[in-house]
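Dear H.,

Thanks for agreeing to be a second pair of eyes. The structure we're designing against is below in token form, covering all 407 positions.
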């Protein structure tokens, strides 16, 4: 049975990084991937341009049952380390909003870079390799035996980098979670993250009628609806109406924090002193209709929906005919529009999976399972999920680097 120092299960972002780092240390490394090619999510990421990291990586941009867990890996391998690698390979890139870094040309550049680094240190990559069984073995130096039913290998270290459940069409599988459980490790419940929100009728119909309308909003969630009013999470970015509900960066970001039956609060005019603006409009242009005033700052099609929802009975009144208190109430609704999703679009379209292998089971310094020497978990399979904006890849690079340094 061929023996390797390190077998990496899953050749995505985290798996390839851990393979090349272990290879640089002179370890004999084999990457096994069930898909027909490695790095598929890298290729489809960032609209084909791969938002490979962010200039402002901080632990606050990550969700986990243990928010401190990600700190060690993120500080051992920073965004600057990855940027240096990208520059070493002469890959052109640019910064977009919020410190997000994208390739100028194609995500293929990032995958090509990882593959060439793997080649340089002699990493072997096998695709179309579906594991049929993995077992612990005590025939030193092997600790693990892995088979697809036909071909078997042994390894001293096994790095599990099989990703999460998002986009099953791209080869996503729950295998990493099953494997963790087989080795007696706890796995926290999983759910779709960075995912569009869907609604029941009639709001679902309204979204469909506004499909394509996009605007910058502040979208937030209260920590404990109905009681404490402290804002738990808030993002000011684009919100977009679609034929299935709400999407766009602000909505994807808030979806990571959303739990069933919780309302999301939309401020349609973030940063505007809306009550003051509306009363000034009433004073200065008393004969104008409210919809005409609002259409100065909001898409007209959206204003027509808001009119039905917020001031249907006064719709044909000039501003002078709307009482100050009603105008204030309308301003309040425009800035605190409470919408309760019926769900999310789920793993079919989610960019990431929340939850996963419990970080209590893993050393944050090495990514090795505390109770199973030689078994490592990296990337999305672990209960660490980033915000939108290159944070998830940075977690994949950092956790992969750490495991590759010890495996
Ligand atoms: P990843 O999913 O990349 O890799 C897992 C690998 O394991 C795959 O190659 C798979 O085939 C393989 N595998 C699965 N089951 C297996 C099994 N049983 N046996 C063997 N192999 C198996 N993030 C970001 O920071 N910037 C961005 O621009 C984007 N954009 C983006 C777009 C879209 C459409 C999606 C779906 C996701 C993103 N992301 C992103 C998120 C990012 O892609 C994700 O966080 C990383 O790819 C996670 O890296 P991993 O290596 O952990 O898993």
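And this is the sequence the design step returned. I haven't edited it by hand at all.
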């Amino acid at each position: 049975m061929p023996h390797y120092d390190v077998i990496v299960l899953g050749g995505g972002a985290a798996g390839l990084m851990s393979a090349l780092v272990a290879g640089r240390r002179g370890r004999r490394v084999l990457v096994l991937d069930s898909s027909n090619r490695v790095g598929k999510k890298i290729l489809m990421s960032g609209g084909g341009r791969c938002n490979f990291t962010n200039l402002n990586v901080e632990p606050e941009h990550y969700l986990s049952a243990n928010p401190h867990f990600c700190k060690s890996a993120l500080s051992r391998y920073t965004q600057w380390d990855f940027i240096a690698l990208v520059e070493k390979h002469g890959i052109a890139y640019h910064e977009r909003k919020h410190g997000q870094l994208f390739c100028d040309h194609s995500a293929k550049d990032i995958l090509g870079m990882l593959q060439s680094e793997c080649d340089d240190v002699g990493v072997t990559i096998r695709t179309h390799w579906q594991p049929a069984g993995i077992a612990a073995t005590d025939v030193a130096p092997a600790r693990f035996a892995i088979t697809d039913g036909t071909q078997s290998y042994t390894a001293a270290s096994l790095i599990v980098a099989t990703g999460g459940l998002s986009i099953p069409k791209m080869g996503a599988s729950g295998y990493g979670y099953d494997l963790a459980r087989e080795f007696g490790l706890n796995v926290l419940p999983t759910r779709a993250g960075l995912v569009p929100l869907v609604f029941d009728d009639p709001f679902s119909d309204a979204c469909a009628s506004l499909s394509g309308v996009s605007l910058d909003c502040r979208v937030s969630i209260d920590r404990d609806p109905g009681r404490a009013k402290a804002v738990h999470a808030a993002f000011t970015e684009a919100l977009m109406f679609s034929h299935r509900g709400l999407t766009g960066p602000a909505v994807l970001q808030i979806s990571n924090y959303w739990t069933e039956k919780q309302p999301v609060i939309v401020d349609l005019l973030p940063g505007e002193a809306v009550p003051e603006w509306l009363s000034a409009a009433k004073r200065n242009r008393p004969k104008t209709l409210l919809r005409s005033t609002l259409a100065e700052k909001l898409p007209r099609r959206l204003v027509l929906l808001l009119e039905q929802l917020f001031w249907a009975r006064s719709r044909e009144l000039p501003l002078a005919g709307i009482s100050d208190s009603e105008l204030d109430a309308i301003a309040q609704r425009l800035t605190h529009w409470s919408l309760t999703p019926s769900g999310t679009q789920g793993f079919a379209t989610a960019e990431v999976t929340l939850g996963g292998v419990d970080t209590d089971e893993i050393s944050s310094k090495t990514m090795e399972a505390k109770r199973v020497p030689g078994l490592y978990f990296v990337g999305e399979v672990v209960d660490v999920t980033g915000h939108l904006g290159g944070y998830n890849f940075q977690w994949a690079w950092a956790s992969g680097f750490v495991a590759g340094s010890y495996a």
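Two observations from my side: The longest strand covers residues 231-242. The chain has a mean pLDDT of 95.

Warmly,
E.
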